[in-house]
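hiii so um. not sure if this is the right channel but i have a protein structure encoded as C-alpha cells and i wanna go backwards to a sequence. like what aa goes where. can anyone help
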C-alpha cells in the first residue's frame, strides 16, 4: 500500500456461528476499522451430527452474503477489495461446495475456504500484532473449531486445530434447555483434555496465553462487569482462572435461555457461551496457565494485516514494535503523527529529556516502562483537538481509552489517558481506574502529568522556540535552564505556573529561567 493513497479492504468472515463483514481503511501511515456488519447465521448448526450444512442455516447464510455483497457494491468496493473467507463449518461440511456455488452465484462474492493451518495463521497474526506475545500460546475459539498456536520469539512454531468450537461442543454436551449438570461439565472438560493429548507442547509453551474470538471477548466483558471495573473495551484485559471459574459456575446454574441475563453476555451468544467457556477452562488447565490475555483483534485483522504489512522481501507480517505502532497509528489518525506534527514530536522530546535528567539527578526512579507511557501520552495529548479545542484534554482521553492501544495493558492505557486528561490543569487522579491500579500508580501519574504539562508549557507557542531544557538541583529546588534562540518569556511564564503539581510529583520546588 502506498503512503498517502487511501486503501480499503472488506474482510468477510464466514464463521460457524456468525458472519461478519469488516471494512478496514488505511491512509497516510495509519489504519483502522471503518465499518462493520454482523449477522448470527449459525450455519454450523447440526453439522456435528450430520456432517452437512442444514437448509435453514444455508438460507440464512446466503441471505447474509447477498446483503454483504450489496453493501460492498454500494460502498464502491471492487472484487479486489473484498476478501471473503470461510472457516470450520463450511470447510468440514460434505455439501459445502453445493452451498458455495449457490451462494456465490446469488451474491457475487468469491469465497476462500481456509485450511486449518491458514485459519490458525490468521489468528496468530492478529495476536502477535495486537499484543506483546513473544513466547506462549495463541488460543482462537470460534463456533466450529478451536486453534492453538505455539509462539516462540513471535514466530509460529507449532499449530493445530480441533472441532471444539462453542457451537459444536454445546450441541454434543449441553443440548438441553436446562441448567448444566456437574456430570455434563466434567464430560466436556474431559473430552477437551483428551483431544489435546496430541499436542503435548501446550504444557511447555511458557506462562502466557492470548485469546481471540467472540467467546473470549464475551467472557472478558462479563468478568469486567462482575469485577465492577471501569469499562473501555476488553483489549488488554486479563481473564484470570478464578474469574473464569466463577463465570462457569454462574452460567452453568442457569438454563441457556437465561444466560444472556448475565451482565456482559450477548443474548445472541447466550446458548453457546458456557460450552465455549468450558473449552477455554480446559485449555488453561492442560497448559497450566493462570490467566488468558484478551485481545479484540481476530481472524479478520489477521487477514487485513497480512496484506497491509506485506513486504517485498517476503518477511513475516509483523509490526516491529506493537506498542509503538499502536500509539503512532492512533496519533496519525488524528493528524498528530510525530513525523508530520512538529509540536507533538517536540513535546515528547522535551518531556523525555526532563524525565531522563531528573532520573539521572536522583529525583525519581527512572523506570523505563513509565518513560514509555510518558512518551505515549506526549504523542497523544492533542488528538482531542479533532473534536474541539475546548476540553480537548478530555476529548483526547476519551479517544485513547476507546481506541484500545493494542500492546498495552488496560492499567497502562488508563495511566496514559489520565496523564493526557491532566496535561492542561487540575491535580491528577486515577479516578474510576483506581481499581485496576498497582502500588505506586498515583505517584507515576503525578510524575507523568507534571512532565507532560511542563513540556507542553515550554512549547506553548508551538514553534519549537525552546530547543532544550536542562535540569540542575539547587538547595531543594529543581532549576530548568532553557536553551532558546530568542526570547522565551512565554515558555517561562507558562512553565512557571506548574510549581504546585511539580512539587507534589517530585517533592521539590520548580524554578524556570
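sure thing!! here u go:
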Amino acid at each position: 500500500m502506498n503512503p498517502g493513497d487511501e486503501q480499503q479492504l472488506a474482510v468477510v468472515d464466514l464463521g460457524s456461528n456468525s458472519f461478519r463483514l469488516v471494512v478496514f481503511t488505511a491512509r497516510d501511515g495509519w489504519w483502522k476499522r471503518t465499518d462493520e456488519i454482523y449477522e448470527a447465521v449459525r450455519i454450523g448448526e447440526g453439522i456435528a451430527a450430520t456432517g452437512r450444512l442444514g437448509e435453514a442455516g444455508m438460507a440464512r447464510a446466503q441471505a447474509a452474503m447477498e446483503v454483504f455483497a450489496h453493501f460492498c457494491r454500494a460502498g464502491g468496493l471492487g472484487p479486489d477489495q473484498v476478501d471473503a473467507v470461510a472457516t470450520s463449518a463450511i470447510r468440514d461440511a460434505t455439501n459445502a461446495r453445493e452451498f458455495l456455488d449457490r451462494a456465490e452465484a446469488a451474491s457475487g462474492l468469491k469465497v476462500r475456504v481456509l485450511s486449518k493451518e491458514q485459519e490458525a495463521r490468521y489468528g496468530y497474526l492478529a495476536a502477535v500484532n495486537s499484543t506483546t506475545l513473544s513466547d506462549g500460546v495463541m488460543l482462537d475459539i470460534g463456533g466450529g473449531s478451536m486453534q492453538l498456536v505455539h509462539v516462540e520469539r513471535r514466530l509460529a512454531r507449532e499449530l493445530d486445530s480441533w472441532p471444539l468450537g462453542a457451537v459444536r461442543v454445546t450441541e454434543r454436551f449441553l443440548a438441553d434447555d436446562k441448567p448444566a449438570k456437574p456430570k455434563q461439565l466434567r464430560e466436556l472438560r474431559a473430552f477437551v483434555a483428551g483431544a489435546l493429548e496430541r499436542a503435548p507442547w501446550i504444557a511447555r509453551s511458557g506462562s502466557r496465553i492470548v485469546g481471540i474470538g467472540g467467546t473470549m471477548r464475551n467472557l472478558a466483558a462479563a468478568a469486567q462487569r462482575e469485577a465492577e471495573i471501569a469499562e473501555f473495551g476488553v483489549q488488554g484485559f486479563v481473564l484470570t482462572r478464578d474469574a473464569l471459574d466463577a463465570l462457569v459456575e454462574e452460567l452453568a446454574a442457569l438454563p441457556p435461555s437465561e444466560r444472556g441475563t448475565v451482565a456482559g453476555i450477548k443474548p445472541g451468544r447466550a446458548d453457546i457461551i458456557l460450552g465455549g467457556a468450558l473449552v477455554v477452562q480446559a485449555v488453561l488447565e492442560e497448559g497450566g496457565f493462570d490467566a488468558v490475555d484478551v485481545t479484540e483483534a481476530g481472524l479478520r485483522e489477521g487477514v487485513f494485516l497480512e496484506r497491509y504489512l506485506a513486504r517485498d522481501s517476503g518477511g513475516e507480517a509483523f509490526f516491529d514494535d506493537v506498542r509503538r505502532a499502536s500509539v503512532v497509528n492512533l496519533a496519525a489518525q488524528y493528524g498528530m503523527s510525530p513525523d508530520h506534527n512538529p509540536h507533538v514530536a517536540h513535546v515528547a522530546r522535551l518531556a523525555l529529556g526532563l524525565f531522563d535528567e531528573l532520573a539521572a539527578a536522583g529525583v525519581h526512579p527512572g523506570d523505563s516502562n513509565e518513560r514509555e507511557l510518558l512518551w505515549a501520552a506526549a504523542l497523544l495529548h492533542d488528538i482531542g483537538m479533532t473534536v474541539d479545542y475546548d476540553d480537548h484534554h478530555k476529548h483526547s482521553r476519551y479517544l485513547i481509552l476507546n481506541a484500545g492501544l493494542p500492546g498495552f495493558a488496560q492499567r497502562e492505557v488508563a495511566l496514559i489517558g489520565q496523564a493526557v486528561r491532566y496535561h492542561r490543569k487540575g491535580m491528577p487522579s486515577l479516578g474510576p481506574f483506581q481499581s485496576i491500579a498497582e502500588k505506586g500508580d498515583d505517584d507515576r501519574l503525578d510524575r507523568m502529568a507534571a512532565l507532560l504539562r511542563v513540556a507542553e508549557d515550554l512549547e506553548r507557542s508551538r514553534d519549537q522556540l525552546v530547543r532544550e531544557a536542562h535540569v540542575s538541583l539547587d538547595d531543594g529546588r529543581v532549576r530548568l535552564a532553557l536553551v532558546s534562540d530568542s526570547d522565551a518569556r512565554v515558555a517561562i511564564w507558562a512553565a512557571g505556573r506548574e510549581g504546585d503539581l511539580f512539587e507534589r510529583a517530585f517533592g521539590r520546588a520548580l524554578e524556570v529561567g
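oh and The first strand starts at residue 7 and ends at 14.
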